[in-house]
Write a structure and sequence with these properties.
71% helix, mainly alpha, 203 residues, Tetracycline Repressor, domain 2, Arc Repressor Mutant, subunit A
């Protein structure tokens, strides 16, 4: 009984070690993309040999880092329940969750080309979820009835990209940017509609 139970703590410990290495790799490589395995190991608080036991090469480590971040991205979207939560709630939560991944795993998110098989599969799934969420938002009246869902989604992606570039470093900053992104998507910057007979040109 004791023997059969003993591997479990070891597996959990190994998982913690791998996560510590990946998190250190993200920090170190974000600051210096040319950083060595030795520098990553030092930041993770482990020996260089420990890193090489888990990852055969620096390239393998970066590939694993990108795969890890891609998984976090998928989980961030799914955690917002985009197919079941009220559209306004889901839209905000997806935005906040994705911003946290993009700012926390920025190097990793760009480490693999989007046509890499696993990345492409995850992105295709997220795309389908976002399209359904935007259709639900339109049906709920959050977006105009004549909204082109694909165009709205593409604009939304750009808004998230710009928000992530501000590198929010606290939960409050992420929440504020998520609110700004959603508000901009739903309301834009336009003023009241022009009244009939107004040309809108300077007189």
């Amino acid at each position: 009984m004791a023997l059969s139970d003993s591997p479990k703590p070891l597996r959990a410990d190994a998982e913690r070690t791998v996560r510590a290495i990946l998190e250190a790799a993200e920090r170190v490589l974000s600051a210096n993309p040319a950083a060595t395995v030795e520098q990553i190991a030092e930041a993770a608080g482990v020996a260089r040999t420990t890193v090489h036991r888990r990852f055969a090469s620096r390239e393998a480590l970066i590939t694993a880092l990108a795969a890890w971040a891609t998984q976090r991205f998928r989980e961030a979207v799914e955690a917002a329940c985009p197919d079941t939560a009220p559209p306004a709630v889901a839209l905000y939560q997806v935005t906040a969750n994705v911003l946290r991944v993009k700012t926390g795993w920025g190097f990793a998110m760009g480490a693999l080309p989007t046509d890499a098989p696993e990345v492409a599969r995850v992105h295709a799934g997220v795309l389908a979820q976002c399209e359904r969420l935007f259709a639900r938002a339109r049906d709920a009246g959050l977006l105009r009835a004549d909204t082109d869902v694909d165009w709205a989604r593409r604009v939304y992606y750009l808004l998230i990209h710009e928000a992530a570039a501000e590198a929010p470093d606290t939960d409050a900053a992420v929440d504020a940017l998520a609110t700004r992104v959603v508000d901009t998507l739903l309301h834009g910057f336009g003023g009241p509609a022009l009244t009939s007979g107004t040309t809108g040109t300077p007189g």
